[in-house]
Amino acid sequence: MTAHRPVSEGPSGPVDVLVAGGGPAGAVAALVVARAGRRVELLDDGGRGRGHRGAAASGLAAGTGEVKIGEFLPPAARPLLGELGLLDGFLAAGHPISTGTYAAWGSTALFGRSHLFDPYGHGWHLDRLRFDAFLREAAIAAGARLRRATVLDRRGDRLIVREQTTGAVAELSARWTVDATGRRCMIGRRHGHRRRQDRLVAAYVVFPSRPTGDPADAEARTVVEAAAHGWWYTTRIPAGRLVAHLTDADLADPSLRTPHGFWHALSRTVHVRRRLAGHGPAATPVPRWAPAHGLRLAPAAGPGWVAAGDAALAFDPLSSQGILMALHTGARAGQAVTSCLADEEHTTAALADYTGFLDGIAAAYQRNHAYAYDQERRWPRSPFWRRRRPGGTPLSGIA
Fold this sequence. Notes:
The protein has helices at 24-35, 52-58, 77-83, 87-92, 128-141, 215-218, 259-267, 271-274, 322-342, 347-374, 383-386, and strands at residues 9-10, 13-14, 17-20, 40-44, 60-61, 65-66, 72-73, 97-98, 100-104, 111-114, 123-125, 145-155, 158-163, 169-173, 176-179, 193-196, 200-208, 222-227, 230-237, 240-248, 288-291, 295-298, 301-302, 305-307, 313-314, 397-398. It is an alpha+beta fold.
């Protein structure tokens, strides 16, 4: 039996806050807490602490190197990055811009939505690995300490982790813990219930960039196309062209797990396939899979812990708001924890404020989600679309 090492200690003594998860939500939470002068440790597993389905989210896309799915940052992120003091560094990184979206939704025609008139300008197609690393580096520069470790469990007020470098099991504790472990929700699931919106999954591949300079392949807008049993999207990312098919897990054709089957399904689209001119079934990578359903944790905070990012509230990718909300919830979670540390008598009010903030986001998301899916009525007998119509019976439940 492996012996546990004791409580986490920083250079100046015991750690005030443990942030579990080094993605956008966790890195921003650690940044906010560190800037408040608190001792914070950021636990990041480098994408190695996930199971089979989660491996897709960490992004080892065959034939393209490392690619992390979740690639769009909307224009509304600009003021938040500015408030966090990260905008100049982010812009200097040179992530490719996104000029808008084309969508064949509710019609075979392709309609465009440009960022030209957005008050915040254009959006971005992110290199997620580089973006996440940028946020972690900002947290470290603010005083957070990075620890390469995978969260295994929570027992009482202690986290059980496995050190990535040595494989040793350690037992860590702090006054507060932020759960930013994504859909795994390693801490929050011990305290609350997770309500799954449906069974949406994403099958996706990344086609390498072509040297031909084909204008269709270089298109800077994301293309979304509804289909009989779900929907597709394609977008440019630094590693090439990402193509994803979204459907419910119980409706997914098993052939989508093979390159030939994925290409065959892709070839039946109209607008997405036009962005793949020059590619073919022989060059199709092995598809990867990732969960994509909406998810809500309730409660998302309690004495000594808060959840942020996908651990608290995960969105259907149709919203294109996942990374933005990870940044927002990470910042607010960091502020809530900082407030609780500064005044223990304010804990109940601080957690109530944070929960109210999440409630507002969730309510807006539900309204927008229902409205968006209600716009597509071409396949009234399709189980996928019936479940998302008003009065339908989506496959929701406890996750």
